[in-house]
């Protein structure tokens, strides 16, 4: 039944997919320029007509997206932008190797696990692309700090973000994903072992129906598709890097449950409850893009093309709400936090991570098809 549901429509990307991709890249460029420092502004607030401060966490994982888009588009401006982001991240890396919580205008400067993991993606990509030893050094320092901070059972409980409601999070499997990538690239088994250990712990938090406890920024009873996708992708990718079929199967189970909640227009409910039922009327636009990436990754990993239609519908929905003609450069080409814009996630804001994951999803779809 799941396979029939997933494959009931075409996966062909809309005709304007390349235009949407370029517009999102241009929006992220404006977000970087707005910061004035090399990092990327966290979001644009429509109500205030104002860009937020630069955000180390998400700038970190925009870096590989821009390197990839430079190759995809042939426009090497994006390669230079990615290099500047990575250099800025090294400039502001804390002495212990961690990455600070929040944006650069936050009042508290403390290292946090999740943000460090996300910037790790950027430093690894920058080192692989440029061979600049500075980026490798930053990546190693960050990875060593993460391993040292891990609890014996594989969870991370110390150095939680002061801007999140919960100290223990299963979506930290996305940190494990970064550690696994670095461990594989550098031939360092300690990093991969730590990644596997974290996913093993996360699976102790999984209910019989595949739903994860402790998996939201604020409301663990109704997690965002954004954090569900963080956790799912982390479990999947660590499973693929470590050749652990149990992890891949667990991620596929979660991904199927989310797919069954997909609306006819391709959007997902912004929140899902513990029975995988819709828990909001609005959609989390970032979550749509992230789940599309996961469905494409599962199709590639398993050879099962029935994952692709759900991805195509989610991407098609996001394309349908992208404003390509707005005079306001903070809106044109960006992706809102929620749809409608006044929904429950990043209300009235265009976050940089929504555009980042949208670009990743579009490039995967265009390359696949």
TrEMBL record:
<dbReference type="Pfam" id="PF07944">
    <property type="entry name" value="Beta-AFase-like_GH127_cat"/>
</dbReference>
<dbReference type="InterPro" id="IPR012878">
    <property type="entry name" value="Beta-AFase-like_GH127_cat"/>
</dbReference>
<dbReference type="InterPro" id="IPR008928">
    <property type="entry name" value="6-hairpin_glycosidase_sf"/>
</dbReference>
<feature type="domain" description="Non-reducing end beta-L-arabinofuranosidase-like GH127 catalytic">
    <location>
        <begin position="69"/>
        <end position="258"/>
    </location>
</feature>
<protein>
    <submittedName>
        <fullName>Beta-L-arabinofuranosidase domain-containing protein</fullName>
    </submittedName>
</protein>
């Amino acid at each position: 039944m799941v396979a029939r549901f997933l494959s009931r429509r075409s996966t062909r990307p809309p005709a304007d997919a390349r235009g949407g991709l370029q517009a999102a890249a241009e929006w992220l460029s404006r977000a970087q320029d707005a910061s004035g420092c090399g990092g990327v502004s966290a979001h644009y607030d429509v109500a205030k007509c104002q860009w937020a401060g630069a955000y180390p966490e998400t700038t970190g994982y925009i870096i590989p997206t821009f390197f990839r888009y430079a190759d995809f588009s042939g426009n090497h401006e994006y390669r230079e932008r990615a290099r500047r982001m990575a250099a800025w991240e090294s400039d502001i890396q804390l002495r212990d190797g961690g990455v600070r919580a929040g944006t650069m205008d936050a009042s508290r400067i403390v290292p946090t696990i999740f943000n460090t993991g996300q910037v790790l993606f950027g430093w690894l990509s920058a080192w692989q692309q440029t061979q600049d030893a500075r980026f490798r050094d930053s990546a190693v320092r960050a990875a060593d700090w993460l391993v040292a901070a891990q609890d014996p059972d594989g969870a991370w409980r110390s150095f939680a973000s002061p801007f999140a409601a919960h100290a223990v999070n299963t979506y930290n499997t996305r940190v494990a994903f970064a550690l696994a990538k670095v461990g594989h690239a550098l031939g360092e088994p300690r990093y991969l072992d730590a990644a596997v250990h974290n996913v093993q712990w996360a699976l102790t938090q999984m209910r019989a129906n595949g739903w994860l406890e402790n998996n939201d920024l604020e409301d663990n009873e109704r997690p965002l598709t954004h954090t569900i996708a963080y956790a799912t992708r982390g479990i999947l990718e660590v499973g693929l890097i470590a050749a652990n079929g149990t992890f891949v199967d667990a991620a596929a189970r979660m991904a199927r449950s989310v797919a069954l909640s997909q609306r006819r227009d391709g959007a997902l409910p912004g929140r899902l409850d513990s029975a995988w039922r819709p828990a909001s009327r609005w959609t989390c636009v970032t979550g749509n893009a992230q789940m599309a990436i996961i469905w494409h990754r599962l199709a590639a990993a398993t050879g099962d093309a029935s994952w692709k239609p759900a991805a195509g519908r989610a991407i098609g929905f996001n394309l349908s709400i992208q404003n390509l003609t707005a005079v306001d450069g903070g809106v044109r080409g960006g992706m809102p936090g929620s749809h409608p814009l006044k929904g429950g996630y990043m209300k009235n804001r265009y976050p940089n991570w929504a555009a980042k994951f949208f670009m990743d999803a579009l490039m995967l779809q265009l390359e696949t098809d």
